[in-house]
Amino acid sequence: MSIAEQPPTTETPELKIVKDATCTFCGCVCDDMELTVEDNHITKAKNACVLGKAWFFNHHIEDRPEATIDGQPVTYEAAFDKAAEILFNSKNPLTYGMSDSTSEAQRVAVAITDWIGGNLDTTTSVCHGPSGMAFQGVGEVTCSLGEIKNRADFLIFWGGNPAESHPRHFTRYSLMPKGEFIPKGRKGRTAVLIDVRKTKSAKAANEFLQIKPRSDFELAWAMRALAKGLKIDPKIEEKTGISLETLTDLMDRMKKAKFGVILFGMGLTMTRGKHINTEAVLSLARDMNRHTRWNARALRGHGNVSGADNVVTWSTGYPFGVNLGRGYPRFNPGEFTSSDVLAREEADAALIIASDPMSNFSQPAREHLAKIPSVVLDPKLSDTARTATVAFTTATYGINTPGTVYRMDDVPIPLRPAFESPYKSDYEILKEIERRIRAKQLGV
Amino acid sequence: MMSDIFVLIPGRTSRQGTALNEGKYTDTYKEEITTLLMNAEDMQRLDLETGDRVRMWNEQAEVVVTCKADKGESPPGVLFISYGDISSQLMGGDTHGSGMPTSKGLDVQLAKAE
Amino acid sequence: MTLTCITNGILQDPANDIDGEVRNVWIEDGRVVNAPTDPGRRADKTIDATGMVVMPGGVDMHCHIAGPKVNVARKMMPDDKRTAEPVRRTALTRSGTTGSVPSTFATGYLYAGLGYTTAFDAAIPPLLARHAHEELEDTPIIDKGFYVLMGNNHYLMKQLQENEPERLKSYVGWLLNSTKGFTAKLVNPGGVEVWKSSGGNATSLDSTIDHFDITPRQIINGVATAVDELGLPHPVHIHANNLGVPGNYNTTLDTMNALEGHRGHITHIQFHSYGGDPDDQSTFCSKVPDLVEYVESHPNITVDVGQVMFGNTTSMTGDGPLGYFLHKVMGRKWFSGDTEMETGCGIVPITYKNKSLVHAIQWAIGLEWYLLMQDPWRIAMSTDHPNGSSFRAYPEIIALLMSRDRRREMLARVPGGLKERTTLADLDREYTLNEIAIITRASPARMLGLKNKGHLGIGADADVTIYQPNEDYQRMFELPRYVIRRGEIVVEDGEIRSNAEGRLLHVAPKYDDGAIDNIREWFEKNYTIQFRNYPVDENTLHEREVIGS
C-alpha cells in the first residue's frame, strides 16, 4: 500500500513544485523544503534558511565540460578509462571527501578503495574526527534532534555557532520549537553559549560565557569536578576566564534541569587538545546522568558527513582514517588520515569526491596533492578540480539526484530531486570506475 | 601592553556559506576569506584602520589580508578569519597523531603591511 | 535450468521427520525439487555427500548484525578489532573486520562460513529503518530481515491510554509496512520511556509509565493482540522488563501471563531466568526449572536462549536503562542513544569471566534452558549476538549440548558455588544431531513462520549445509564441507565462493488505511522529519520477499 496520499509533485510545463525536498547543505538536513522549479532553476525554496536558499538558487546547470583530463575537455568514457587506470596502477592511493554525496555513492567509493587497497578517509578527519576518537575513548550519551525538541529544557552550545553554520538548528530542532513535553517552546528552555568569541549565536542564548582561547578542556574538567561535588581552586578563573561562582551557579542549574543537552562544535576539535577537549565534554554530559538526564551531540557540518562515517564504519569497522593496503582494514588517525598521508608525501594517487582539500588542507598537504595524479568529482569548479588529472562535473545530490543522506544525528533521510542534470551523479561515475577496475583485476 | 602575538581563529560565517554556493571564484567569496576581523582596541593600539592591509605570519607562512574592526565578537588578542585558502596557508602539516591539523587557535604575529 | 543433486548424504531434516537417512537432495532454480521422473534426466551438477551430514541452512532468529546500534558499537570499539583476525579481501569478496561486532561484509561471510543462511536483526528503531536496510544490502549471501522496536512508542502508548485497540492495530500494520520489518519487537516495554524521561526504569509489569499513565502489562497485551489479529507469521518478540536483575523470573512469568493466551516469543530468556534478591548478589541463582515448566505447559509461547559464553564481547540493546546499569557495574565506556518518539539504546563493552560466579551462573542458566526443555521445537539457539557472545560461538555451544563430558570439563573451571545455584551439574542429557538440527534451523524457521526455510522438503529454499562428521562436534560445525544457498555453492571447505546479495525478508500486513490521518496528525506535531519521508521506499531495497502468514 502506498503511504503517500497526496501527489508528491505538481507539474505544469513551465512550473514544478517539489514538496518535502531535502536541503543537504549542512548537517541539519532539513527535509521540509518546498521548491519551485522553473526551467531547470529553483526559483523559490520555501522554509530554506539563508544558506539553504544560496544552495538551491546557485546549483543550476553550468556550462562546463562533463569531464576533463589535464584540463582538456573529454567524454565521460575517456575519463572513466583514465580514472580507472590511475587508481588501478597506484600503489598507495587515497580516497577522500564523500561528505557531500549520497550514501549510495559513498558505498561505491568504499568498494573501489577496498578493491585497490587504498587509504579511505572522509572530511570527518578534519571536522569531528577528534570527536570520533573521543567517542572511542569514553563513549557518548546522546539523542536524536527530536528528543531535544521534545524534552530539552537546558541547552549548552559549546564552541559552535549555529546561528551562522546551522541557521535552522535553533528554530527547528533545539531552541525555539514547541515540543511534546516542552509546550512553551523557547520560554521552556534555558540556553547557554560557551565560546571564545561573542558570535551571532550569543544573541539567541540566555547567557554567554566567554572563555579564554584554548581553555575548553580545563573548563569542562572543572565542571566535571563540580558535578561530582569536588572542591575547585578559584584560580580556574585565571585559566578559563570564568569565575568559580559563575561555574558553581551553572552547575547547580544543570543538576536541576530535567533534560539537558550539550551541543558542541569545531571550537573543541580544531583547537589544541582536539579529541581530549571533546572527551572532557562527552564525559561531563555522561557524568551528569548521575543527577538528571543529560546528552551531548556534535554539530556536524556537511550534509552527509554522518552518512560517510556510517558507511565507512559498516564496511570496514572504523569511521575514518582507514588503510586497506594489506587486504583488510586498519585504523590509525594520524597515520592513515588524509592530511597526514598527503603531508608526509605517502599517497601516490587520489580519488576526491565532492570536497576541496586544495583550499582547505595544510600547505604541505596541498603541495603534495598538486603533484600526484588525482581523480576529482565535483558539481562546481574548485581548486582541487583545477589541479586534477581527471575531473568530472557531477549532478548535485539532493537537487538533481535521489539517494539517502544521514542527518547530524544519524537519522537517514531520502532525497527528492528537483530537476534532472545533464551530468552524471557521483554514484553513476563511481560505478563506471569500479566496473573498469574490477574488469582489470579479474582479467575480463 | 598587548603583545603582538595573536590567537587566530578561522571559522565559518553565513556570508561565506552563501558565497560558497555562488562559487569560490566570486569576488564576495574571495573578499570573505581574505578579511581579518579584529578587536577595535587592538587596531587602535597598532594604529590600524578598517581597510588597512596587514601582514600575518607564523612559522608556516606569511599572508597579507585586509583588516576590519569587528563588532565586539573577539576579545583583545584574538583574530578571526573565514576558513579558506588564507587560513590554510598558516596551518602546519602535523596533526599530532589525530588526523586533524591545528586549525583554530593558531599563534600568529601581525603587523601593518608597508 | 541447472539441475543439481546432493548425493548419498546422511539427511537430518527434522521438519520432514527425516533423522539420519541416506538420501539424495535434488535442486533446481534455487529450490528443492522431486527427483526427475525421466530416468534419462541426469543432474547437471553433482555434489557427492557420501558419509556427510546434510542439513537445512542455519537460521539465527535473534542477533544484532545491522543498523544504527550495531554500527555505533563498531565505531566505538576499535580496541575490539585490533587483535581480532580480520577478513581478507579476495578476488571475489570484500574485506572486513571481526571482533564481537563484525563489519557488514564480514558478517555475511562469517555466517555463511558457519552454515547459516538466514539471520534476523532483533531491534531496529523505525525512524532509522532505512539505515538497517542499507547495511543489510551490504551483508552478503544470507537472507535477512529485522524486528521493529515498538515497546516504548509514543503513538502506541497513547492508543493504549485512550483505549483505542483498533487504531493501535492499524498503527502496527502501518509501521511494519513503512519500515519493511518482520514483526513487532518489545524491549523493556515502558521502561525505556521512563529512562528517557527521568533516568529511571519500570520495575514491574504494573509500574506506571510517565506521561502516558499506562503499564508495561498493557503494552505487552495490546501489541500481542494486535500482532495476532494482523496475522503476522512471527508473534510479538519480547525482551522482557528487568533484564539481568536477580529475582527477575517473576517478571518473566508475569510477562508470559500478560499475553493471556496470545502468541509470544520470549527472547534471550537466559537473561530473564534469575532468582535471588536484587540487593544481595550472593543470593543470585537459576530459576530455569520454574520457567521451563510454565513454557512447556503454554503452547502459545516460544523462546530463544541468549547463551552467555566466557570472553570479551559487547552488550548492545534498545534497553537504555540497562545500558546505564551495565556502565555503572562495569565502569567502562558507554553509549546511550535515545530516538524521538520511539526507543532508546545502550552499548557497553563487557567481559564474561569464568572465575566470576555471577557470570558462570549466567552461562549455566543458558545451558539449563537447552537441557531442561523437553520439546526442542519451542526453543531456538541464540547467543543474542553479540550480547551473550558472538554467533561464532554456536559450534562450541553445540558441542557442549552434545557432550556431557565437555560440559564437565568446563564445570571444573568455574566457581564451585554454581552447583547449589543451578541444576547444570545434574543434567546428563546429550543432544542428538536431530535435536541440534531442530534448535539451529527447523524450530527457529517454524517460529518465524518461514515455510521455505529450516527444512529440505519439496519447494523449500535450497539452503543446505553439508558437514563432515567429526568426533569433535565443535570442529564439525565450525567448518562445513559445503554451504549452499538457493542452489549455489557459497562456501567450500571454509572458502567463500560467492558474493551474492542475499534477500530481504519482510511482512506487508493489511491494515485499515483510514487510520493514517490520525497517525499523520500526531506525527507532524512531534517528529523532526516529514511524514512522507518516513516510510522506506520499496524501490530503494535490494532483492526481497514478502512473507505471508
Main sheet overview of chain C:
9 strands, mixed
Distance between the termini of chain C: 30 Å
Average per-residue pLDDT of chain A, rounded, comes to: 95
**Spatial order of the strands forming the largest sheet of chain A:** 6-5-19-18-17-7-8-15-16
**Main sheet characteristics of chain A:** 9 strands, mixed
Multimeric state? heterotrimer
Task: Walk me through this protein's architecture.
The complex is a heterotrimer of chains A (444), B (114) and C (549). Chain A is of the alpha/beta class. Helices cover 38% and strands 21% of the residues of chain A. In chain A, the strands form 4 sheets. A 9-stranded mixed beta sheet of chain A has the order 6-5-19-18-17-7-8-15-16. Chain A has a 5-stranded parallel beta sheet with strand order 12-11-10-13-14. In chain A, a hairpin with a 5-residue loop joins strand 20 and strand 21 (412-415). The relative contact order of chain A is 0.18. In chain B, helix 1 (14-22) packs antiparallel against helix 2 (27-33). In chain C, the strands form 5 sheets. In chain C, strands 1, 2, 3, 4, 5, 19, 20, 21 and 22 form a 9-stranded mixed beta sheet that branches. An 8-stranded parallel beta sheet of chain C has the order 6-7-8-9-10-11-14-18, with helices on both faces. In chain C, a hairpin with a 2-residue loop joins strand 12 and strand 13 (280-286). The chains are: A alpha/beta (444), B alpha/beta (114), C alpha/beta (549).
